[in-house]
Amino acid sequence: MSGNSNVTEEVDAVVIGAGFAGLGMNRRLRDEMGLSVRVFEAGNDVGGTWYWNRYPGARCDSESFLYCLTFDKQLMQDWEWSGKYPEQPEILRYLGHVADRYNLRSNMTFNTRVTSAHWSDLTNRWTVGTDQGDSVSCKWLVTGIGCLSSTQKPKITGQDSFSGPSYHTGEWPHEGVDFTGKRVGIIGTGSSGIQSIPVIAEQAKHLFVFQRTPNYSVPARHGTVTKESLDEVKKQYDDIMAKARASAVGMHYEQSGQSALEVSEEERNATYERGWEEGGAKFLFGSFNDIGSDIRANDTASDFIRKKIREIVKDPAVASKLSPVDHPFGSKRPLIDTNYFDTYNRDNVTLVDIRSAPIQEITPTGIRTADGEYEFDVLVYATGFDAMTGTYNKMDIRGHDGLALKDVWAAGPLTYLGVSTAGFPNLFMITGPGSPSVLSNMPVSIEQHVEWISGVIECMQKDDLATFEADEQAQTDWVAHVNELASTTLFMQADSWYLGANIPGKPRVFMPYVGGVGAYRQKCDEVAAAGYVGFHLGKESISA
Ligand code: NA7
Fold first, then answer.
1. Of 77, 205, 366, 531, whose CB count within 10 A is highest?
2. What is the pLDDT of residues 22-39, one digit of tens each?
3. What residues does each domain of the chain span?
4. How much distance in Å is there from the Cα of 382 to the middle of ligand 1?
5. To which protein family does this belong (predicted)?
């Protein structure tokens, strides 16, 4: 017991977040293991990432049938996706259906943000505080807070003076935005920009795209899917998901076993051409196995995409500005699009290169750059997130002796297996830094963590143990392994959010684990089978 008179509720577990992770964890702990659980969610309903990211064109880059929870085979058989890729409204409907179907909202508290979590060595419990005044005591604390949930809006001189509305893609108004007849400015050409620009361009009177760094993108080849093709998938669902779980990125595709350098130029280009026509992740993963590791191989893919940009974009000067040259293909998050480059052939779209002529200020009527003034009515920030650690650092999480997580992570996140941090017992991070997370099809990684974490809790309950904590040396070794693997890849050659490079002052540390979903799962399973080697399992259960 907590012994704290201010405590408003005592439960076995608190779960933070009601996206895929929070829903899956709640179902597992509450319904399958019989624990008392409280879930806190900042939004007013379930959805997580897909609750907030409602910008035009928002959709997932994983194919629909792979982007799902698999704990109930009947759910997998019953749900019908309508498109090749799941669009944001459909994912939100799916997660709403999951919540309804398993009555998962009944122990969720919405519109409530967790602001603090303090561990007590006296009681071996966490006290979780919220912005609504809750103070909940729990034995287990699980974060399902997403990897891209703290938006980053750069500080730009004069931005508060803008007289029209401005929106961040990651905090999009639920009622939508009507751009009809409006002049629109958008800053950012990452995934959110590349998805929203073609859609906004179709509606707006004029769209100014403020681009700092051009990005590689390949066609998604999005479209509807037939019932027959989904039925075929459903017949083989177990096999497909088994392959996805054992794969590098949580998808079932066969990875190519061939080097881009061991085939003729003609054969290589034919392979890229097939990937381009097929679209999506297959261009990267189905073509050659060394695009991510050998710069000479990578150059062939990067050159191919630049050639495509020159073919698609009619104005050679615009094509040149849209062609990435400062980082290898895939070293930033690989993007897939619908009509992105074609959009620059429209008369109502202007590309503004703010690398050569930076933004000087935002004015009441638009943006002034070093080479001119651009007037518009609505401003869109597609400027990304403080990825992977931003949301952790916003909460006051304290472990032993009041140790603050954000201090422990000041030089970059320290975790063992990306799921636990030394000094913070009984705290589990679903898809935390140091796990494959954002380099994978997220639900596959999320469910792996849900299963592994609940396995820990089951074992602790069976043996009546009180505390579970990462060993400092095991953590140091894991972090070194994560860094060492990343250093062998071309990921280190881009200023990406994977490296924290998009946030001024953030330590330059590669945060996700590049070793692959399958290998990572195997490592986690081995750790569990060996009695959770690298963790301390404490016996003292102290009751107040
Ligand atoms: P990203 O991928 O971080 O893209 C952000 C974009 O915003 C990128 O083009 C940035 O340019 C640009 N940006 C950021 N700050 C500035 C400033 N100060 N001035 C001009 N331009 C700026 O975020 P997304 O939301 O698109 O995607 C995030 C992930 O969500 C995505 O990868 C998917 O996993 C889903 P830069 O490249 O830094 O020069």
1. 366
2. 999 999 999 999 999 999
3. 9-150+387-539, 159-381
4. 6
5. Belongs to the FAD-binding monooxygenase family.
